User: Fold this.
Amino acid sequence: MSTKKILLAGTMLAMIGLVWLGVVYWMSFFWVSTEVTQGIAQRIFYVHVPAAWTSFLAFGLAALFSGMYLWLRDERLDRAAVSAAEGGMVFATIMLTTGPLWGKIAWGTYWTWEPRLTLTLLLWFIFLGYFLVRSSTENPEKGKRHAAVVAIVGALDIPFIHLSVIWFRSLHPAPVVIKPEGPTLPGDMLTTLLMSLGAFTVLFLGLFLLRYSLENLRSELDTRSRHASV
Amino acid sequence: MRNYLKQIRTILWKDLLVEFRTRERLIAMGAFVVLVAILFNYATDWARVSPEDIASGLVWMTIMFAGLLGVGRTFHLEAEDGAFQGILLSPVPKDAIFIAKALANFVFLYIVALLVVGVFIFFFGLEVGGSFGMLTLVIALGVLAFVALGTLFTAVSTGTRMGDTLLPVLIFPLLAPVVIYGTGATSQFLAGRPVTEAEGSIRMLAAFALTAFFLGSWLFRFVVED
Amino acid sequence: MNRNQILCGLVTGITFLVCTITLFAQETSELPGAQLAAQGLGRPYWHVFIAYAIAIGIVFFWVVSIGRRLSEIEKKIGS
Assistant:
C-alpha cells in the first residue's frame, strides 16, 4: 500500500473512532445506569479500562514489531514499532491519570499499589527509555536497534513484573474499601464498556496508521534530501 | 564448546585482572556502600523503627545503586582506547563477550553486595543468624539478574549522548521484580522465619535471573553490531 | 491546501466537536440537580468530568501533534 492510501485509511479510521468516542461519551454520561455501591465515580471505568487495554495492545504491537525488525531488518517494521509505542504512551498516560481520579473516590487515596496500575506505570517508564534511547543515539540506525532491544526486554519482563506486583500486594494488603469493578457487569454497563473498547481500539488504529504514514513520509524526505545532496 | 568456554574465560580473566590491579571500581563501590550506610543512619529515626523492619529494603536499594555505579563503567576502559572494536572484530561470538562481561560484573557486584550485608550487620546490629547461607544465595540471584540487564543496557547507554544517566531509566523499571522478590525473601530471613516460607520468591528470583541472562546473551549481538 | 491538510483539518475539527459535546454534556448532566444534590455527590462528579476531559484532551493533543508534523513534512516534500 502506498503512503497516500495508508494516510487516507488512517484518517477515515481516526474520524470513525472520534465519532464513536463521542457516542461513548454520550452513553456513559446519559445512558448507562449508575453503579449502586460506587455511585457516579464508577463511570470513570468507561475511559480507564479501554485506555488500559489500548495501551497494552499498543505496547504489545511495539514489542512485536521491534522483534520482527531485529529479525527481518525492514525499515517499515521499525516505523510501525515507534508509531505503536507512541500510541501506547498516550493511552497509558490516560490510564494513569484517570486511575488516581477514580481511586480517590473509590479507595480514598490517589494512589494504591494496585498491580495493574503499577504495571502500567513501570511500562510507561520502560517506553520512556525506548524513546530516550532512540532520540539520544547519534547514529539513527543504531538507535533503532537499541530501542528495539529495550522494547523486547520490556515485553518479556512484563510477566515477571506482573507476578511480582501481585505477590507484593498479597503480602501487604492495601485498605481496599471497594473493589475496582464489580464481579459481573449488568447489561447496559457491559454494552457501554464494549462500545468504549471498540471506540478506543479503532481510534488507536486510525491514529497509528496516521503516525506510521508520517514516519514513511519522513524517511521519503530523508532519502530525497540525500539524493539531492549527492 | 571447549573453545567457547575458553573464550569466555579469557575475556573474564582480562577484566578481573585489570580490576584487581587498579581496584578502581571496587574501591568506588565499596566506599559508596559504607558512606550510604553512614548516611542512612542519620536519615532514619532508630528510636521508632528497628533495623530488622527496614534493613532488607535498604540493603537491596544500596546494592542497586552501587551496582549502577559499577556496571556503568563496564565498557568505559575499552571504549576510551578503542579496544572494544578489537574485541568485536576478534572471532569470539558476541554472546561469549556478553557472558564474560556479565560474569566479571557479577564478581565485582557480588563482592560489594556481601560488603553491604556486612556493613549493615556491623553498623546496625542486624541479626542474620542461621539463614546467612540462604541470604547469600538470594543476593547472588538478585545480583545475577542485575548484571545481566545492567551489562546489556550499559552497552546501549554508552552509545548514546546521555551516557550513564540513561542507565537507571532503562533498568530500574525492569528490575522491579528483583527488588520485590529480593526484599521479600530477605525480610523473611531477617524476621527469623523458616527458609521454606521464602522458597517461592527465591524460585521466582532464580527464574528471573536466568531469563534475564539468556535474554542478555541473545540480544547483546544486536546492540554491538555495526 | 492539499488533500492531506484538509483531512488533518477535518480530524482536528471533529475532535473539537467532541470536546465541546463533552463540555456540553458536563453542563447538562448536572441539570437534574435536585436529585443529585440530595445524594451529596459533589466531588465524584468533578472527578468523572476531569477524567473524561483528560482522556479526550490527551487524545486531542496526540491528533494535533500528528497533524502538525504531517503538514510540516508535506510542506517540505511539496517544496
Remarks:
- The CA atoms of residues 174 and 207 of chain B lie 14 Å apart.
